[in-house]
Design brief:
The complex is a heterodimer. By secondary structure, chain A is mainly α. Chain A contains 12 helices and 2 strands, in the order αααααββααααααα. In chain A, helix 2 crosses helix 3 and helix 2 crosses helix 10. Chain B has 13 helices and 14 strands. The chains are: A mainly alpha, B alpha/beta.
Chain lengths: 293, 401
Amino acid sequence: MSDATVLVLMSTISTGLLLGAIFALVAAGVTIVYGCVWLPNASNGQFFVLAALIAWSLTTTLGWGSAAAMLAVIILGILLSLVLERTLIRRLYDTPNRNIAYFVLTLGLTQIMSGIFSLTYAKWSDQFTLPPLFEGVTMFGAFPMSNNRLGVLVIGFLLLGALFWFLRQTPYGRALRAVFQNREAAALRGVNVRGMYKFSFVLGSTIIFIGGVLFALAYSFDLTVAWTMAITAFAIMIVGGPGSVLGALVVGLVFGFTQAIVSIFASPTAATFSYLGAMLAMLLVKPTGLFSR
Amino acid sequence: MKRVGIRGTAAGVGAAVALAFTGGAVAQSGAPIKIGFVTELTGPWTFFGVSCVAGLKLAQTEINKAGGALKRPLEFLVVDNQTNPSQAVAASRNLDVTEKVVAISGPTSSDTALAMYGYAEQNKLPFLVPVAAFPQLTKPGTRYTFRLEPNAAGWGYAMAKFIEQKKPGAKVALMYSDAALMRAITAGFKYQAQRSKLNIVQDIMFPQGSSDATVQAAQVKASNPDFVIVSGAGAFDNTITNQLLDLGVKPNQVIHPYGITTQVFNWGQRSVGSYYGTFFDHSLDGVTAEGRQFIKNFEAANGRPPSYVENFCYTTAYVFKEALQLAGSAEREKLRDALSRIKSKETTSGVPIEFDKNGARKEYIYYMQIGSVDGKKTYKAKQAFYTEWDPEVIPVYDLVK
């Protein structure tokens, strides 16, 4: 195999894995909240960008290292989710058709957050870059991969594995899945359903925060990424099956690879629209998604 | 509600201007000469609009301290267009009808500028565009619109000339976002590349919202180009650059059609040796004494050196001053005629300012090579190339509709 072929092949694999891991994480965060609370979080893209912007502030303004900034963002993400749950989300737990109410509520949050970003960060810069988590390059044959992207990829997959293990193997994870499947039955078996609502909102939102930081570590970003990520996360959730974490993980990875492969055999434009096409086709053929129960 | 907001903004800026007048102004008589400045203070283009106003305000303060124009203070009524063309038209109409401004200016986006262009031409309102490069803003038949920034297809022309001079017959790869500005630059480049006998080995366009270019960077690397022209929208520009460098493309093979201060900071130390186009830079050889003062004042106020965006907006105020003096009156038609006759120079760099029959400027560009980047505070670059050209040296209005 020539060096040129190795370059293109390895870049396709690494891009597919990296984008796939980030897509899967964010979509898993969105689908955990939707599956448990019936909350289609329209502001997931703004949460994603908020995390990236906080990390940027901590590293650029305060001079923190990227690892410390990442940990701080996770803690802030948990605290912010708790505050939002207490002040806004829990007020609608008993509302009939609450998914519509939540959608409108989170659309409002999107507007508020995007307005705040416009009045602050947008005035300071038109683009943002975090310092790398790891320096240097690792060679895979003729393909040089930056250790920073490699590190983000490994962290992304470790987190996905940990999330999957948590949902399958721990009592909390099983309780969460029980609420996904049947709230009444879960309550009869002694699961604190409202407690699970709160837990799932905090867990899902924190995962979106982590996705935002990982993305900012791997790529430069600007405020428009909020919209792109929000659409992508919803597309993955719809194709994978709303409420299915397995669906989010599998379809997220497939979308990452699709984007990488289509962009090389067709064009980057076709790649971007390929997953939106997949979403529309899924809505027509199997609206419940690939992995719905 | 929007109307209140707009007037509130204008009133606020008016008050700020009034405060600025109180300090050491040369004697002025008469009411201020009002000029509408409709720019992007919110929305996706916020950074450019806010930076532009920062440059404008420095010039406004200087001009009014020195006696204003026609012995009257210049008052720029700054209004937010929210990076929204229809809002830009509404704000222009309000300034025209309610404030009776003598002219309008301000947009830093081609979309909002095109919307204001329609209003200005239809209502015979002089319109000086500081920063917007879409060619059709000075299409044949234009009468009331004048533009300081060279048109984007011309940038592409100049880039081909730059590469031709660096390496005749060079192999060039193009990586750019699917946005009006980048398409115009690319159209100009492709037109001239043929004539300059450059060989385009890759031509990759990314849709807006793209986040990864690793695969395309690998394709580019595999085609072994002499130069890669990188022109991504927003942060994606930096992502493409980093991914090319990750794969072993050398910095001095990378050419950015344009670069502003924040971009250079983001490209960072690893991009030392790469090139970018600009119309003003604090590292230029030809910065005048006034230009150095402008840079110093801007850095003191904003913590970073100005780039061409701020300089064009700073220059806008001086062009208005000079045109008003030339017109001898603050009447719209006389101001329009004066703008069409103006033969001046940028106070900051000495580059000539004169407009052709369509309001397009005698065009020019510098190519700079990055020498060092010191965090987010400053950077050094050296001038690698300079050229001037007639706006219609290539068929810009046919290349980009």
